[in-house]
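Recall that a protein's primary structure is simply its ordered list of amino acids. Everything else, from secondary elements to tertiary packing, is in principle encoded there. The following example makes that idea concrete.
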Amino acid sequence: MNDQLQLSEEMSAGTARLRVDVHGSEPRLHVLDDLSFLNYRLADVRISPEVSLTEPDIVWSQSGDKAIAYDGRVMHFAGPWPAGPIQKVIVTMLALRMEAVGLHPFHSSAVRYRGRTVLFLGGESNHGKSMGQIEACRRGGLLVSTETTVIDEAGVAIMGSKSVFLKKRTEGTERADKAAPERGVEKFFGDMPTWGQLDEPTNVDIVIVPAIDGNFDPSTGAMISFERQFQTLHSLQNYFLTNELLAPGWPMPVVDTDPLRKARATFVERFCERPFFFVRAANPQVLLDEVDRIL
């Protein structure tokens, strides 16, 4: 069976780079036809015009039976995988390469609001980071990020995703349990507000862990050190898909190690020296009223 190298493609996010090699019998123009999911998850992923890395990070041999394995550095695919699982693995592997150069993707949104950069952290429950960002922008804030904020070792948000919702799921990642992307906007805002963007790096000044539920009375509390670090580590671990199923019978291979986890926890400890608040609210408007009182 013909298993020639058909494509070597290099992707970048900030200064991190990832090489994907595809083997098979048919020519291939790109690993993925659509980068919208990668940009939604990792802020700004680009295809490099030339391959500079000497070794691949992901190898996909399209012939044979479906299989996936990780050898500690390279992810190996075999067989006919749809685009959905491939893009999930690219996100995880590129997130690892980002960490290696001091860039940390946070599952979060961020705004420049009332002279401060506010990070709405997805954390353990992920209940309100998008709606909080939309309401802050509706009140005049500038968008820094939507789904993902990439933060460096010094706590500076250097780039962020700009699409509020993922409107189309790729084959192999469809989810019946996810509501229509803009249903929450219709419920809370009527129409999607418009806003400006902050495109230059900005230090994260304050972190809000939101919890929006129509049954909540408003409450705000400063978070202790353990709570801050617990929620932040959840946000960072989101990109390594340790609890994800790629396909029936095929879990995401474990790419994490104890040294990586310890280094991540050490970064989290430093990052969490800034103010953190947990805010419960019935809707985004009440959430931002509480944030206004903090600021």
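The mean pLDDT is 92. The CA atoms of residues 41 and 217 lie 32 Å apart.
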